[in-house]
Amino acid sequence: MRLFIAIDFNNLKDYFSELQEHLPKNAKLSLARSFHLTLKFLGNVQPDNIKKTKDELKKIKFEPFSVFLDDIGVFPSEDYVRVVWIRLNPEDCILELQKYIDEKLHGLFKKENDFKPHITLARAKFIEDSKSFIEGLKKINIENKKIRVDNFRLVRSNLTPEGPVYDDLEVFWQG
């Protein structure tokens, strides 16, 4: 089963969909239909490891915190755009939670490298002119919306021809 651990942001789905409408039109984009921040991608997990994973995740406790939508950016670089994303601030609580999850699952999964907290808006398949695309992105105004984080989820990802379909296997509430 293909799994990952995430913070869900679908309560802002309408807002993110509105932002997607403002993305520059000189590109072929695959728009995200579900909005989350992946804390750790687990990959294909054998059934016997799912229970162990859930048991370890249940041990994780953190103080609920708030983050704000910040700015729009791209991966891996402005010259070669593959992902359009929204940054969250402050990052320290997210980074701390991600590190804690990594530590709890160290015997089951490899360590996460180069983690950057973000919410994916779109994946770029083709961009006509990267420079004008980036200029268009910079014109998009991101509202500084506040989001309370008081849980994380173990999510199953089913890949379909229409794109991934996500199902929560379990939600780990805090506070």
Describe it for me?
It is globular and about 50 Å long. It contains four helices and nine strands, in the order βαββαββαβαβββ. The protein has a single domain (2-173), classed as Cyclic phosphodiesterase (Cyclic Phosphodiesterase, Chain: A, Alpha-Beta Complex). It is 25% helix and 44% strand. Strand 4 (65-76) and strand 5 (81-89) form a beta hairpin. With 175 residues, it is an alpha+beta fold.
Measured distance between first and last alpha carbons: 29 Å
What count of structural domains? 1
Shape: globular
Mean pLDDT: 96
CATH level-two architecture: Alpha-Beta Complex
Characterize this entry briefly.
By secondary structure, the chain is of the alpha+beta class. The chain is 25% helix and 44% strand. The mean pLDDT is 96.
List keywords for this structure.
44% strand; alpha+beta; four-stranded antiparallel beta sheet; globular; 175 residues; 4 helices; Cyclic Phosphodiesterase, Chain: A; single chain
Secondary-structure blueprint:
Layout: E1 2-8, H1 13-21, E2 27-31, E3 36-44, H2 47-58, E4 65-76, E5 81-89, H3 92-104, E6 118-127, H4 130-138, E7 146-149, E8 151-160, E9 163-173
Antiparallel strand pairs: 1-3, 1-8, 2-6, 4-5, 4-7, 5-6, 8-9
